[in-house]
Amino acid sequence: CLDDPKQYILLKVGLPATSANVRARVKVHYGSHLECQYLLATYGISKELLPLTATYEVDMHRHLNWVDSCIRGNKTNVGAPASNTAVVTEPTANDVLYMGGNM
Length: 103
Fold this sequence. Notes:
Elements: H1 5-14, H2 20-23, H3 33-41, H4 60-72
């Protein structure tokens, strides 16, 4: 998520020069952090699952816990808010993702 137009243009121009493996995993978004969170929500990714603090700094502790969970094959919701409803941390092969609006 970039809110600086110069950085956004630089990444959009430079991304095609990277390997296909990198391009498949990177999507550059232009807008505020809140706008990007709303866009991710259209893919079913809740903002509570993002490893961010209230000031939009990366919370590496939560992120590293999630990585450890994935390595162990444990699909629990590390860092997710406690509730009685299930939260999907990542889509599976059987999930269908709908995107609202146009991009």
